[in-house]
Amino acid sequence: MRSTPKPHSTPRAKQAASSTLPTKPRGAYLVVDLTFGRPGIQDPFALDADTIMHSGTKYFGGHNDLLCGTLSIPPEREEAWLKRLHEQRTILGSVLDDSENATCLVRWIAEFLKSVEDNAMKSTVSAARHASLQDADMDWLREQTPNGFGPVLGLEMKTEGMTRRLTGLLDLFQHATSLGGVESQIEWRRLIDPSSRPTLLRVSVSVEHIDDLKADLLQGFESMLQPTRV
């Protein structure tokens, strides 16, 4: 397997089509991790993927009361793989119970997902990293993600001090190492990942009103310009 830069540090879109070519002729299975690309905006099966992993915690849960991931397989592999996957998950015990399954279903609504998307695109600033800002790559991006872009973006601050301070000045954005539920979150990656740049913030935008999110960021930026009281 090839070593790649950590995607959680800089949420930048990469072209997927070329990466499928080296694996398939050798008989390897192609597994696509769509933790940052929500269900519905991409179709890796169209690129000959064998399995897709989704974050149920972020996109199916909603209130941080659900911890799960999902595996999707194409219809042509259902007969050969579904029973084996079901047996393995049952034996290992890593399956959702009935209440968690109900939580998954009841929160799986298009309006929530669309709100996530709209907010993520509208909340970008000039010092942001997000697939929607990759103008030079837009030809293959629109083909690879025809239904929009993900809700996670990266913000670069001018200094490490500003980066650390901003997370404590916001009201709506909670500082946590998570992709969030129905609340937006912000994270100073350096705190848990020493290899991340000290000025990088990861922002996961959720369903709050876009004007409220903008106002929260604006007051945070303005607060950083005020003298620090001891």
UniProtKB/TrEMBL annotation:
<dbReference type="Pfam" id="PF01053">
    <property type="entry name" value="Cys_Met_Meta_PP"/>
</dbReference>
<dbReference type="InterPro" id="IPR015421">
    <property type="entry name" value="PyrdxlP-dep_Trfase_major"/>
</dbReference>
<protein>
    <submittedName>
        <fullName>Uncharacterized protein</fullName>
    </submittedName>
</protein>
<dbReference type="InterPro" id="IPR000277">
    <property type="entry name" value="Cys/Met-Metab_PyrdxlP-dep_enz"/>
</dbReference>
<dbReference type="InterPro" id="IPR015422">
    <property type="entry name" value="PyrdxlP-dep_Trfase_small"/>
</dbReference>
<dbReference type="InterPro" id="IPR015424">
    <property type="entry name" value="PyrdxlP-dep_Trfase"/>
</dbReference>
<comment type="similarity">
    <text>Belongs to the trans-sulfuration enzymes family.</text>
</comment>
<feature type="region of interest" description="Disordered">
    <location>
        <begin position="1"/>
        <end position="22"/>
    </location>
</feature>
<dbReference type="GO" id="GO:0030170">
    <property type="term" value="F:pyridoxal phosphate binding"/>
</dbReference>
<dbReference type="GO" id="GO:0005737">
    <property type="term" value="C:cytoplasm"/>
</dbReference>
<dbReference type="GO" id="GO:0016846">
    <property type="term" value="F:carbon-sulfur lyase activity"/>
</dbReference>
<keyword id="KW-0663">Pyridoxal phosphate</keyword>
<dbReference type="GO" id="GO:0019346">
    <property type="term" value="P:transsulfuration"/>
</dbReference>
